[in-house]
Amino acid sequence: MLHKLFYFLFFSAVIISCKSPEARPPVQSHSGTFIKESAERNKKIYDDEKNFIGEIIAKDSTHNYISSENGFWYFYNKRDTTTAEMPDFGDVVKFSYDIKDLNGSLILSEKENGLQHYKVDQSNQDLISGVREGIKLMKEGETVTFLFPSYKAYGYYGIEEKLGSNIPVQSTVTLHSIEQTNEN
Q1: Are 149 and 169 spatial neighbours (Cβ–Cβ below 8 Å)?
Q2: 176: which of 18, 60, 94, 144 fits an S-S bond (Cβ 3.0–4.6 Å)?
Q3: CA distance 86 to 80
Q4: Are 125 and 72 in contact (CB under 8 A)?
Q5: Which residues share a beta bridge with 108?
């Protein structure tokens, strides 16, 4: 009788253990609200920066500011009205620039940045997008001051120990030369 009970329990255990595994429900589910909240937060940051830059422009009666299609503002320190040549895709440009906060305090000097050699729209050079786009608006020999919202500058990351996150900046850029390539 003991053998029968043993066999019965053994076969019952084998049958029960043959059950296929069931999928567990996920521990966490994401609803996508983080992305929406982040987008709203970034829109508010941009609106605040745009208003702040607008106030600076309104107070500055000495310069004629131009609004770019790329989301930044600029004025000419030195303008060339005789030349029509601007950098195009693949051209190699030489330029120098500095970075300041909107109060005019120097963050990165021209000396620290050095003379830059940049192949327009083809280089993986570590330049902020505002400077890359601003260079395409310049002619050889011109000096332009740009006011960039943070998303066109150093954005969320800033510059370690020099510039915090989400800080708009200004940059004065001098375009020294344009070397056109055969691609154009």
Answers
A1: no
A2: 94
A3: 11
A4: no
A5: 99
Report the C-alpha gap between 145 and 131 in whole angstroms.
10
| Fold annotation for 48-143+156-179 | Chitinase A; domain 3 (3.10.50)
**pTM for this model (two decimals):** 0.78
